[in-house]
Q: What sequence folds into this?
């Protein structure tokens, strides 16, 4: 098994305690074990059988004004300059699977890396098959300057709208007052 594949599996295994999955449970024939096996299989297949590679370009960070003091939002960076790279696999149902790494300027204008796996259920509501909508999730690991770059697991929702090889993908980071409650979006170009 390649070193990078081992690293990705290690990242996913770091979610085990948070999700309440023990290695014994993951091996049993249970709903949670089946979900874990499906996730592991999808990550492995996306790593080993990419159909496209992706360029990620962070586009916007927006702090929900209803959840922040104006003094804070006036100080925050909402232009997340950065770049990322990933690989995509489309499954037999037309759903998107992706592995990615990205680095961008966070709210404090400090570099924040993130990497992980994403999945979206894809709908093509128009006769034009190029237009697509997606809804799903991402599991990953990030690190922030204000937390001493300690690796932190993330589980976040994903949504997207795209046409052809260009997709506008987004997430929302929930939080409390003056913390979290951030809309983050990027462009994903498939090549």
A:
């Amino acid at each position: 098994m390649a070193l990078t594949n081992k690293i990705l599996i290690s990242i996913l295994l770091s979610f085990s305690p948070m999700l309440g999955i023990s290695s014994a449970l993951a091996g049993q024939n249970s709903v949670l074990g089946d979900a874990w096996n499906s996730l592991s299989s999808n990550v492995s297949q996306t790593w080993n059988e990419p159909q496209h590679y992706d360029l990620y370009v962070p586009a916007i960070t927006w702090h929900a004004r209803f959840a922040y003091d104006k003094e804070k939002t006036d100080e925050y960076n909402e232009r997340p300059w950065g770049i990322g790279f990933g690989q995509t696999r489309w499954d037999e149902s037309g759903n998107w699977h992706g592995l990615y790494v990205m680095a961008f300027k966070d709210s404090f204008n400090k570099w924040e890396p993130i990497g992980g796996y994403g999945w979206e259920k894809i709908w093509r509501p128009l006769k034009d098959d190029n237009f697509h909508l997606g809804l799903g999730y991402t599991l990953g690991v990030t690190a922030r300057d204000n937390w001493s770059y300690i690796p932190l697991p993330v589980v976040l929702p994903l949504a997207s709208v795209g046409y052809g090889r260009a997709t506008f993908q987004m997430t929302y980071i929930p939080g409390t007052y003056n913390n979290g409650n951030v809309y983050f979006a990027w462009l994903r170009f498939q090549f």
User: Anything to note?
Assistant: The chain has one domain: 50-190. The first strand starts at residue 52 and ends at 63. The CA atoms of residues 7 and 85 lie 17 Å apart.
